[in-house]
Amino acid sequence: MQSAPDRHEYPAHWEADVVLRDGGTARIRPITVDDAERLVSFYEQVSDESKYYRFFAPYPRLSAKDVHRFTHHDFVDRVGLAATVGGEFIATVRYDRIGADGMPASAPADEAEVAFLVQDAHQGRGVASALLEHIGAVARERGIRRFAAEVLPANSKMIKVFTDAGYTQKRSFEDGVVRLEFDLEPTERSLAVQRAREQRAEARSVRRLLAPGSVAVVGVGRAPGGVGRGVLGNLRDAGFTGRLYAVNKAFPEDLEEIDAVPAHRSVGEIEAHVDLAVVAVPAEHVPEVVAECGEHGVQGLVVLAAGYAESGPEGRERQRALVRQARAYGMRIIGPNAFGIVNTAPTVRLNASLAPEMPRPGRIGLFAQSGAIGVALLSRLHRRGGGVTGVTGVSTFISSGNRADVSGNDVLQYWYDDPDTDVALMYLESIGNPRKFTRLARRTAAAKPLVVVQGAGSAPQGHAVRATRLPHATVSALLRQAGVIRVETITELVDAGLLLARQPLPNGPRVAILGNSESLGLLTYDACLSQGLRPLRPRDLTTQATAEDFHAALARALADDTCDAVVVTAIPAIGEGSPGDAELAEALRTAAAAGPAKPVLVVHVELGGLAEALSAAAGTAPRARAAATTEPHSHPAPPRTADAPAPPASRPPGSTPSPAGAPEGAHLIPAYPAAERAVRALSEAVRYAHWRREAADPGKVPEYDDIDERGAAELIDGLLARGQGLTLGADETRELLGRYGVHVRPAVPAPTPDEAARAADALGYPVALKATAPHLRHRADLGGVRLDLADEEQLRRSYAELTELFGSAEELRPVVQAMAPRGVDTVVRAVIDPAAGAVLSFGLAGAASQLLGDMAHRLVPVTDRDAASLVRSIRTAPLLFGWRGSAAVDTPALEELLLRVSRLVDDHPEVVAVTLEPVVVAPHGLSVLGASVRLAPPPARGDLGPRTLPVY
Fold first, then answer.
1. Pairwise CA distance, residues 467 & 834, whole Å
2. 322 and 333 in contact (C-beta within 8 Å)?
3. Entry pTM
4. Cα–Cα distance list, 409 to 310, 400, 413, 698 (Å)
5. SS3 at position 947
6. Region of residue 778 (left: phi > 0; alpha: psi -120 to 50; beta: else)
7. Which of 105, 125, 569, 716 could serve as a FRET partner for 378 with CA atoms 20 to 30 Å apart?
8. Each residue of 70-90: pLDDT tens digit?
9. How far apart are CA 281 and CA 322, in angstroms?
10. Cα–Cα distance for residue pair 138/132, rounded to 1 Å
11. Under a CB-based contact definition with an 8 Å cutoff, are residues 70 and 31 in contact?
12. How many CA atoms lie within 13 A of 635 on its CB side?
């Protein structure tokens, strides 16, 4: 604890766990007076050269005065942070606020000197970069806007830390010292640098788990059976290429091997380094094992034990303690309550899971939070015959259980640039950080398909997630906006994954249908129409079709410029000339290989042999990669900014490895037992391919000269000074929205008929008289709105009718408003969700949005392309574009309104809710007739702050 003179309490919210460049973890926390011994011990382990670079002179040891200075902070003008592993310091950073003369100062001085010291053994791990992010966030919180650092020219590593951070900076050289000054306000480049480092570090942390050089299974029973013994057998049977160890403290001292694997009584007894430990002991013994592993330098844990958060409050606290303990040693965790992990790469062959059989190698990455669902998915991908068939393999499989540490976000970071994974399939029971998941999904989907099943119910008890106020359908829509292929069932997950792993992406929605069954062709045709595809007339080859007939028909369809994909339907045929399964499969495969790169799917009826023949040999097995080339039907990924993660070096999207014995470039053709399933998978591929093309040009956020961002900020600060959260009055709402060019038509309160008449005279006839009571607001259908009142007589008569029907003026809260040009009534909303972030929504006012839920959603900030698609995404959009001869409305004005509202909530996170209703969009221009705005202190923006691991 800090001493009495200190000005602030210990800032516990500055504590954070971070992933370092090499994939290990460290804890960052404020330095306190209790750290004196740790600081001295840390300093003793720093080399003389590093000390010289820090103090510009030989400085062999810290004096008592130094120790006091470096451990006593007020957490405002003097702040020190330490990075720790195993409770010991590995690096420190501090800032001291200074004035214009360079001397110590207090606020309002907004500059500080910053200095680092990193233990030599931990240099090169990205510790200083992580500390800079965190000390910068602390400084901004305390009103410091600029850092200054003095560095010796020979200290190139530290100079690089500052120059690579991406901040706007100045550099000068004076008296033999390099002086760096840089603003702390995040820039586009600094955020890109931060996210690139985040991706590399988190990907590396997962890679260390999936590709260990050695594995210890802790909890291996002496007798056959049991979880630990089973996992050890699975690792051995899979042919794990590294070193294996069996650990159980109950082993006899003279036991040297078990199942031909070296046996040890503890991890500490193992003389060699251990990369990964699979923990298969009861939950009450796990802390002891974690401590052993941490002291031995183990890099990661797979915790299979149950009895954690899924078991209730006591288990949840046990789970938090497990994560804290593991991270203190720099280890990451899969689990607890995990099913395990698999890596089929021939150089690894890791089956550290409860799956008794190693999955076939392939190019599909699979993530499931549920072990049961993971087993089901592995089984479906593995088996032949029935349902989705064929030999299909996975590159990696992760079942995270309670995902107390490693989550789907971490796995996405790994898959993004994993050259062995071309398609990612995820079953998510919950999304812990939707804002980050959406960002990572958008980037991953621009490089390779990402197919997701998301549970619609509440999160499992073992999953601690941020609360979201958004409906499940809205979250799904936002995922689709990010390029995620969102499906409803694990059957659809596998269906789509097989197609995307085996076939190229379609260039459009036009589908050719051919086969030997007219009825099955018509079913496929109807299924295409129901999925929004554009099927061509089915071609019936008759039941007498030979393999050569199928080959010729498929070749013609693929060569036809009017089709983008082909669905082949096949039923058993009886006759002397009828093709066998293998013969038909070969005919289809050779035709597909020789034709243009278009997706081909087969719908079969009870043809297990054909399905196996179509996917003969290696399925999606890995192959040697040629130099990257662009195929005619591949789709470009969006351009990246400098310092953003480089796009992964993988084969063109949707292209397929060749089966053993097949010509190079041949495509394996997925087979489906029902037309609806094949067409559903194809429709998802069509939509994804369209998104890929759109993602290449995401649009821009336009600038408007009339936006007064500074004036709006001052107004918001003044309003929030009244309290923590408030809904603005009508005048304040109009003033704030007006700063962003959103003009709300005034509505004048009319508590009496005379005041209504005076308001109408001031506004000019014709006018509208509206009741604004909550039960009548926006309810013209109930009679609470009277329009086109041309004179005072009509106004007074309408006023009397309203009060007679609905009650006194005090209850009705009537207002008078000038009539707006006729048009389509719409509603625009923006809300900041604590989990998903800022979301902009649009729909038609009234029953369409309220009763039918016909609203479209986009994440803020919205680009011009987003705004255009938002307007066109609702089912009732034809009403805006001249449906049945009606006049088309001014959609460009509507899109501009959406962009201005997006800018408002993006520029000012204190604006937590905006509703514009109704917005009447006329053939020329629009009118905002009602508006409400709610302000609150801005919620935390984890995506803009320093890198941290989540705390559940």
1. 7
2. yes
3. 0.83
4. 21, 12, 6, 23
5. coil
6. left
7. 569
8. 999 999 999 999 999 989 999
9. 14
10. 10
11. yes
12. 26
